[in-house]
Design goal:
Elements lengths: L6 H11 L5 E3 L8 E9 L10 E2 L1 E9 L9 E9 L2 E3 L9 H7 L9 E11 L2 E3 L2 E6 L4 E8 L5 E11 L6 E8 L6 E2 L2 E12 L5 E3 L7 E10 L4 E9 L3
Antiparallel strand pairs: 1-17, 2-4, 3-15, 4-14, 5-12, 5-16, 6-15, 7-8, 7-9, 7-14, 9-10, 10-11, 11-12, 13-14, 16-17
Length: 241
């Protein structure tokens, strides 16, 4: 069983936003990105190692990039997540990246679909509404299948690697995503994301086993951009034992 927790949803928000910015550092021009997010974990009462509690996670985010800036292009996203969560990808049906790339999520087993959501984006002055489907990839993978129709149709699975961090005193796993260029620039136009809403979790695919003494599940994320910036974000969600 893989420890995952809230990091999974942070990846989606970072990918959709092009990066959640609390602070941005880099060699090029800094693009001020503002984010407001609301994360809800149901139930927020943690399970135990012997009796993990399956959860659903609901994320709503609004992203503000000033219109006089070109949106930076995220190249990679990494999320560190704490102990106290379980990712049970090995227990559920999976869908392969190759199958989705050729035939879409309709070919995936029903039991492999773990969530869905939508984003609101702009391609210049035209609005686009990308659809996101969360798909189980097994013990070491999670996929975010993204479909958008405007300004051109793009349908592609975005793979996230689950990496075990042996011996780390704070973080148990890291989620790593490399962002394909065709999900950043469509028909030659960079996408500017405004908002996103996503709900994921099915059975005990995502589960909790403990709540820290400060009653906060914490996570850390970083995104690297083509401008040389590295955006860092720290967040937490209330929990109870």
């Amino acid at each position: 069983m893989r420890r995952l927790g809230l990091g999974l949803l942070v990846v989606v928000v970072l990918v959709a936003a092009g990066g959640l910015a609390a602070l941005a550092f880099g060699q090029g021009d800094i693009v001020p990105i503002k984010i407001s997010a609301k994360v809800k974990v149901t139930p927020n009462k943690a399970g135990t190692p012997r009796h993990p509690q399956g959860v659903k996670i609901d994320v709503r985010a609004n992203i503000d990039i000033p219109s006089d800036y070109d949106p930076p292009l995220a190249q990679t996203v990494d999320v560190w997540f704490p102990k106290g969560g379980l990712y049970n990808g090995a227990k559920y049906p999976t869908c392969s990246e190759a199958a989705m790339a050729h035939r879409g999520v309709g070919v995936c087993p029903k039991g492999s679909i773990m969530g869905s959501g939508r984003a609101k984006a702009r391609a210049d002055t035209v609005f686009s509404y990308p659809k996101i489907t969360v798909v189980n990839g097994g013990a070491h993978k999670v996929y975010f299948y993204v479909v958008l129709q405007v300004p051109a149709r793009v349908a592609e699975p975005l793979a996230a690697d689950v990496i075990k961090l042996n011996g780390n005193p704070r973080w148990s796993y890291r989620l790593h995503v490399k962002i394909p260029r065709n999900l950043q620039i469509v028909a030659g136009i960079p996408l500017r994301y405004d908002s996103m809403h996503l709900v994921t979790g099915r059975g005990d695919w995502l589960a909790t086993t403990s709540c820290p003494s400060d009653h906060r599940w914490r996570y850390h994320a970083e995104a690297s951009f083509d401008t040389g910036q590295v955006v860092k974000y720290d967040g937490s969600v209330a929990c109870r034992s």
